[in-house]
C-alpha cells in the first residue's frame, strides 16, 4: 500500500468532483498531472483519443482513463471521487482514476492496477470507497482495508 500512497499524493486527490462528461473529467485531472510535472499536454490528448476509441469505464462506476503510450515522466494516479457520477458515455463514473505511467514502471504498476480493478469490480467495495472519498486519508484507509480483506 505504500506504493499507492507514493503514486497518489494528496494534491492529486479530488473529492466531490464534478464534470460535465468524460472529456472534461480527463482534461481536469490531466491538468493536475501537468501542473505537477508528471505529464504534458500530449499525454492528456492521447488519453482523450484513447477514450474516444474505447471506453475505459469498468465495472460499476469505475473509469480508468490513460494514454495510449507509456510516456509519463513518472508514474502517478490522479483520482476523482464523484458521488453523483460523471457522465461516461451511456453510464456514470463515480470513481475516476487517471493513470500516468512511465515506461520504467510498467510491470510494477500493472500489478497495482490489476488489484484495484479487481477490488472495484465489486459494487459494494466501490460504494464503500466512494463514500469514504470525502477525505484523502479515509479514502486510502478504505482501500487498504479492502486490500487486506
- Could you tell me the strand content as a percent range? 15-25%
SSE class:
alpha/beta
CATH C-level:
Alpha Beta
The run of helices and strands is HEHHEEEEHHH
- End-to-end separation in angstroms reads 13 Å
CATH architecture: 3-Layer(aba) Sandwich
| CATH homologous superfamily assignment | Mannitol-specific EII, Chain A
Strand numbers in spatial order across the main sheet? 1-4-5-3-2
Number of helices: 6
Largest sheet: 5 strands, mixed
Mean pLDDT metric: 91
Pfam family, one: PTS_EIIA_2
Protein name: PRD/PTS system IIA 2 domain protein
Domain PTS EIIA type-2: 6-146
Account of the protein in words:
Residues 6-146 form the PTS EIIA type-2 domain. This is PRD/PTS system IIA 2 domain protein. With 149 residues, the protein is of the alpha/beta class. It has a single domain (2-148), classed as 3-Layer(aba) Sandwich (Mannitol-specific EII, Chain A), CATH 3.40.930. It has six helices and five strands; from the N terminus they run αβααββββααα. It has helices spanning 2-7, 22-35, 41-53, 106-120, 123-132, 136-148, and strands at residues 13-14, 57-58, 62-63, 76-88, 91-100. The protein has a five-stranded mixed sheet. Helix 2 (22-35) packs antiparallel against helix 3 (41-53) and helix 5 packs antiparallel against helix 6. The chain is globular and about 35 Å long.
Amino acid at each position: 500500500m505504500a506504493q499507492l500512497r507514493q503514486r497518489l499524493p494528496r494534491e492529486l486527490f479530488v473529492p466531490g468532483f464534478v464534470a460535465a462528461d468524460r472529456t472534461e473529467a480527463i482534461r481536469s485531472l490531466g491538468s493536475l498531472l501537468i501542473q505537477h510535472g508528471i505529464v504534458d499536454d500530449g499525454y492528456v490528448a492521447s488519453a482523450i483519443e484513447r477514450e474516444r476509441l474505447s471506453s475505459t469505464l469498468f465495472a460499476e462506476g469505475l473509469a480508468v482513463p490513460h494514454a495510449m503510450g507509456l510516456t509519463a515522466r513518472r508514474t502517478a494516479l490522479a483520482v476523482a471521487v464523484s458521488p453523483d457520477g460523471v457522465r461516461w458515455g451511456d453510464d456514470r463514473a463515480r470513481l475516476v482514476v487517471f493513470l500516468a505511467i512511465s515506461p520504467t514502471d510498467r510491470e510494477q504498476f500493472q500489478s497495482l492496477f490489476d488489484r484495484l480493478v479487481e477490488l472495484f469490480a465489486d459494487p459494494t467495495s466501490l460504494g464503500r470507497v466512494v463514500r469514504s472519498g470525502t477525505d484523502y486519508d479515509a479514502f486510502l484507509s478504505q482501500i487498504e482495508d479492502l486490500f487486506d480483506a
